Structure formats: C-alpha cells, structure tokens
Amino acid sequence: MTDPTMRTAKFGLGAVVRHRIYPFRGIVFDVDPIFDNTEEWWLAIPEEVRPRKDQPFYHLLAENAESEYVAYVSEQNLVPDTSGEALRHAGIAEVFERDAAGTYRIRDRHPN
Q1: Residue 72 falls within a domain, yes or no?
Q2: For residue 27, what are the domain limits?
Q3: Which InterPro entries does the UniProt record give (predicted)?
Q4: DSSP 6-51
Q5: What phi, psi does 26 have (nearest 5°)?
Q6: Per the domain annotation, does 76 fall within a domain?
Q7: How many domains does the chain have?
C-alpha cells in the first residue's frame, strides 16, 4: 500500500532546473520523497521562505555565476530550466552524459 501523503516527484534524474527565487540552476542527481536533511539545516532557512517538509526535495549539482556546489532544494522552489544552455558543474561528467538533443542521461555504470 502506498502512503497517500507521498507525492510523485515533478522532476526526474537529469532534469535541469532553476531556483524560483535565487539565481542558480542545476541538474537533479537524487530525489528524497520528503525532507531528509537535518533540523538545523531546515531551521536555518528564514521562516517566511521556509519550505514545507512534506514534498519532494532534490539534490542538485548546482551553479551560479560565481561557483559550483551541491544544493538541496524543495520542489516548491524549483522550476524547469528551458534555456537549453549546458551546465558547467565539474561533477556532471561523472554522473551524466549529454546526448545530441541536449538531454542529460545517467551514465551506464559497468563494473570493471
């Protein structure tokens, strides 16, 4: 039986997204069905913009104009990135490959 409070994630692995408020974008490399970080992390977010915990949260290989980093973002704060611009995050090549259409796909991991 599935939990009726669980929602299907809006973005899948390899989806390129932008933050709704802050100027960064990234690629989804993991999804938590609900919040799965520390209470300290959650409480550090200003209350007026603090997201609900009962929604998917995404692990992103993220970048802004100055740097590349890993971000943890609620679904309510993400929108699709439709720019078509390639991402430059150094970690992307380890996890994804980009096809001729510009879509990011998980790399095949074959044991040696």
Answers
A1: yes
A2: 16-106
A3: Hemimethylated_DNA-bd_dom, Hemimethylated_DNA-bd_sf
A4: ----SS-TT-EEEESSSS-EEEEEEEESS--S-HHHHHTS-GGGPP
A5: -170, -175
A6: yes
A7: 1
**Three-state SS for 57?**
strand
2, part of any domain: no
Asked whether residue 4 carries a pLDDT value surpassing 60, the answer given is no
Residue 28 near residue 58, CB atoms below 8 Å: yes
Residue 20 falls in which region: left (phi positive, over 0), alpha (psi -120 to 50) or beta: alpha
Q: Other CB atoms closer than 10 Å to residue 23's CB: what's the count?
A: 8
3-state secondary structure of 104: strand
pLDDT single digits (tens) 39-84:
999 999 999 889 999 999 999 999 999 999 999 999 999 999 999 8
Name the CA radius of gyration of the chain, rounded. 15
Q: Quote the CA–CA distance of 50 and 64 in Å, as a whole number.
A: 21
pLDDT surpassing 60 at residue 1: no
